[in-house]
Q: What sequence folds into this?
């Protein structure tokens, strides 16, 4: 089982409980969604949200996919990155959506903020 995890997940994820804001921009509409970050690595995050539809539009639309920007306040600064949704599922027992994301186009200063946070998490989980 250890090898399976290594093979499919190259970067270790850390369990966290952080508030975040997902900014959603369609060509003719924009909104934001409050999310909880429940898992974090230097390349991705797992989010919890109470909805995946905004103004009748799906976050994972096949046509006219929205631009998604995640903002997470962290101890070393505010991390911001464009994201893409890799998967999602409905968690019946928690009555929320779990959304797997990957960071894209991370600016160097934002990468440093998340790297410092990951380093702190590594130290506390060692």
A:
């Amino acid at each position: 089982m250890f090898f399976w995890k290594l093979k499919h997940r190259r970067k270790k994820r850390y369990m966290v409980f952080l508030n975040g804001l997902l900014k959603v921009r369609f060509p003719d509409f924009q909104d934001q969604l409050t999310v909880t970050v429940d898992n974090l690595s230097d390349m991705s995050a797992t989010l919890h949200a109470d909805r995946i539809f905004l103004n009748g539009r799906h976050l994972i639309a096949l046509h006219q996919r929205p631009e998604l920007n995640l903002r997470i306040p962290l101890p070393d600064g505010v991390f911001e990155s464009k994201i893409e949704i890799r998967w999602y599922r409905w968690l019946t027992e928690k009555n929320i959506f779990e959304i797997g994301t990957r960071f894209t186009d991370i600016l160097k200063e934002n990468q440093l903020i998340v790297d410092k946070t990951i380093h702190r998490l590594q130290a506390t989980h060692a």
